[in-house]
Amino acid sequence: MHERSCHIFLNRVALLLLLALCNAIKVNGEESNGQCFHKLTLDPRPHSVSILEFGAVGDGKTLNTIAFQNAIFYLKSFADKGGAQLYVPPGRWLTESFNLTSHLTLFLEKGAVILGSQDPSHWDIVEPLPSYGRGIELPGGRYRSLVNGYMLRDVIITDSSDNVCIEDCNISMGHDAIALKSGWDEYGIAYGRPTTNVHVRRVHLQSSSGSSLAFGSEMSGGISNVQVEQVHLYNSLSGIEFRTARGRGGYIKEIIVSDVDLLNMNTAFSAIGDYGFHPDDKFDPHAFPVLEKITLQNIVGTNITVAGNFTGIQESPFTSICLSNISLSINAASSTSWVCSYVSGFSDSVFPEPCPDLENSTTSSSCFFLLKPNGKAAVL
Ligand SMILES: *[C@@H]1O[C@H](CO)[C@@H](O)[C@H](O)[C@H]1NC(C)=O
Ligand SMILES: *[C@@H]1O[C@H](CO)[C@@H](O)[C@H](O)[C@H]1NC(C)=O
Ligand SMILES: *[C@@H]1O[C@H](CO)[C@@H](O)[C@H](O)[C@H]1NC(C)=O
Ligand SMILES: *[C@@H]1O[C@H](CO)[C@@H](O)[C@H](O)[C@H]1NC(C)=O
Ligand SMILES: *[C@@H]1O[C@H](CO)[C@@H](O)[C@H](O)[C@H]1NC(C)=O
Ligand SMILES: *[C@@H]1O[C@H](CO)[C@@H](O)[C@H](O)[C@H]1NC(C)=O
């Protein structure tokens, strides 16, 4: 088996770009629906350059921002000629933020690690995204992410020519390791761009003060049709978290997360209906989000304090949450394993036993599944 190499350590930034990446990956001219097609080979890019040609030094100390920016500026000129690849050889490549461009493959060789600069002065504050209206950390702006891309088309970050989607990565962050989002309150509703057809697999995620894998809370454009499998989540405040709030509108639905191994978490799963805050006071308090058709299955967890915290919204309860074949070992710090309100769902072979709201015991046919291989969602 060939060795995997996508290996990204990010310290303070959100992977907003992943949305853009997974929305529109093309394989041989066909929309791939974000699925990880293993046997297919991507059309190789007709042009490839190494970051070394732009003077980058992979010693973990030299700041390579200019090299990344220049390389990508150069590769932009190939956008209408089949695109181009930026090859990053093994090394520790320290950089500030850089922008991706469309029709680009960022190829990280095995042993190539992109390191975000730890110096806050290297992180400029930029205009908010149109679907956000304002910054999250700061009113009026936001910190740039390490690798930026928005509304890109046909961008691939990969470790080998036969894999697309987010896979075979180790991501370790202060805040959320992978966060799927789609816009904030009235701005996100107006903008109306969903995040859909995302496939994440074989990743190791860690987030000391956040969630290994988060959905929302900015989800006003909708998040659907996401498949996550074979993931290891560890040393995080929470494992898998669905977040939303009144005023968001939108939806999080048709999500399946399976074959997960959780280690050292305060909370294994949560779905929170009053998460975060609002961009301004113009949001519509009656814009209730929908959270439904979420399947979590084949999960083992060790050293977990709270198994699940499902706190829905009274006017728009969370529904069709399916928990199947889950076994968590709860640590002594725990006073309560499950917290549930305004939620309903099914469960089958779950330990510890979930709250009655999720105990509508069932065959797995009540759960949500993705129909393969085209990734079209369906409830069976
Ligand atoms: C990710 O980390 C795990 C354990 O920490 C390691 O076994 C694996 O090789 C790493 N994967 C990559 C792609 O670096
Ligand atoms: C990156 O993109 C942002 C937003 O489009 C722009 O303001 C910024 O100047 C770009 N940076 C570079 C180095 O091109
Ligand atoms: C259990 O997890 C907590 C973090 O939630 C961590 O602080 C603690 O060291 C872990 N215990 C063991 C025995 O690994
Ligand atoms: C239950 O989940 C475990 C992994 O968490 C897996 O090894 C096992 O095969 C699953 N059982 C069934 C019946 O799917
Ligand atoms: C569950 O989530 C709610 C909302 O975030 C929070 O207020 C509460 O403390 C959580 N409960 C536990 C036991 O973690
Ligand atoms: C159990 O699920 C079925 C099918 O979705 C639903 O009709 C029924 O009301 C549920 N029962 C409870 C107690 O939630």
From TrEMBL:
<dbReference type="InterPro" id="IPR012334">
    <property type="entry name" value="Pectin_lyas_fold"/>
</dbReference>
<keyword id="KW-0732">Signal</keyword>
<protein>
    <submittedName>
        <fullName>Probable polygalacturonase isoform X3</fullName>
    </submittedName>
</protein>
<keyword id="KW-0326">Glycosidase</keyword>
<dbReference type="InterPro" id="IPR000743">
    <property type="entry name" value="Glyco_hydro_28"/>
</dbReference>
<dbReference type="InterPro" id="IPR024535">
    <property type="entry name" value="RHGA/B-epi-like_pectate_lyase"/>
</dbReference>
<feature type="domain" description="Rhamnogalacturonase A/B/Epimerase-like pectate lyase">
    <location>
        <begin position="49"/>
        <end position="97"/>
    </location>
</feature>
<keyword id="KW-0378">Hydrolase</keyword>
<dbReference type="GO" id="GO:0004650">
    <property type="term" value="F:polygalacturonase activity"/>
</dbReference>
<feature type="signal peptide">
    <location>
        <begin position="1"/>
        <end position="24"/>
    </location>
</feature>
<dbReference type="InterPro" id="IPR011050">
    <property type="entry name" value="Pectin_lyase_fold/virulence"/>
</dbReference>
<dbReference type="InterPro" id="IPR051801">
    <property type="entry name" value="GH28_Enzymes"/>
</dbReference>
<dbReference type="Pfam" id="PF12708">
    <property type="entry name" value="Pect-lyase_RHGA_epim"/>
</dbReference>
<dbReference type="Pfam" id="PF00295">
    <property type="entry name" value="Glyco_hydro_28"/>
</dbReference>
<dbReference type="GO" id="GO:0005975">
    <property type="term" value="P:carbohydrate metabolic process"/>
</dbReference>
<comment type="similarity">
    <text>Belongs to the glycosyl hydrolase 28 family.</text>
</comment>
